[in-house]
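Allow me, if you will, to draw on your knowledge of protein folds for a short while. I have a record of one protein: its chain in single-letter code and its fold written as discrete structure tokens. Could you please explain, in whatever detail you think fit, how the structure tokens follow from the sequence? The record follows directly beneath this note:
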Amino acid sequence: MKRLRVVRGWKDLPASDQGAAIAVGSFDGVHLGHQKVIALAAEAARALGAPLAVITFDPHPRAYFRPHEPAFELQKRDQQARALEALGVEVLYVLPLDPELAEMSDREFAERVLARGLGARHIAVGFDNTFGKNRSGTPEAMQAYGREFGFGVSVAPAVTGEEGAKFSSTRVREALREGRPQEAAEILGRPFAIEGEVQRGRQLGRKLGFPTANVSIAGYVVPRFGVYATRTRLQDGRRIAGVANIGVNPTIEGVTQPVLEVWLFDFDEDLYDQFIETDLIAFLRPEEKFPDLEIMTRQVMADAEAARKLLNA
């Protein structure tokens, strides 16, 4: 498998960074619907003998146009890149979403960015893709621009679950906010995962018999506060089963920002300052405020037993 190359920008690119078959979208989550768009681009790349590429935007269009809304992202940039690389994507174009790009009409975007800037040989979009100022461009418009500017265009249909609802990043966020990580995983094609650097805390869990690795969830969509069965990937590739709390731990005073606190089973190594990635496998119960630490500890032990049984099953 070829390594993914990240190309930032669309202006004055060398010929070696042009001429790809490109999937266009935000691709937050790289869910099964996104994967269908990328598969169409991959099909064109094979037929043309061209590199397979993906366009995404930095920042995400929603963050650019609605900066005051709550955090919503499903992946950090490194997670997205790994997911794309696993699908065979060779080039990730990260386009800076700045005033120039934001003010382009759909025609300008197709001509200046796709045709001239990236030298696209083929473009794949989803059935509901929009582009250009005020989201004026449609898949049909992209097909017309392709004919005019000399690149092929394919349009991916909606990908739906058994109940007929289309797979989307919005549905993933809704499932996570409501404490349904299994539903989120069905749409993503893998569990939702939180990645971050292990922070130094008060080490209260260690004193109580359940040492936790604490990771900020800033920037991510905030899942329902509560306890989850988890699996965590360490920097060396090991995967460790565990149980985690997401929230502000109301039993302990002084916690104001939501955090992931994961207890890795049968594990006793120093993880401070290392990056870990934790999959949310199943929701066990809502976050609670306990009368005292002894009662909280008993509940954590019961949570751990429930998580072990679920993960072993």
Residues 191-312 form a domain with the Elongation Factor Tu (Ef-tu); domain 3 fold (CATH 2.40.30.30).
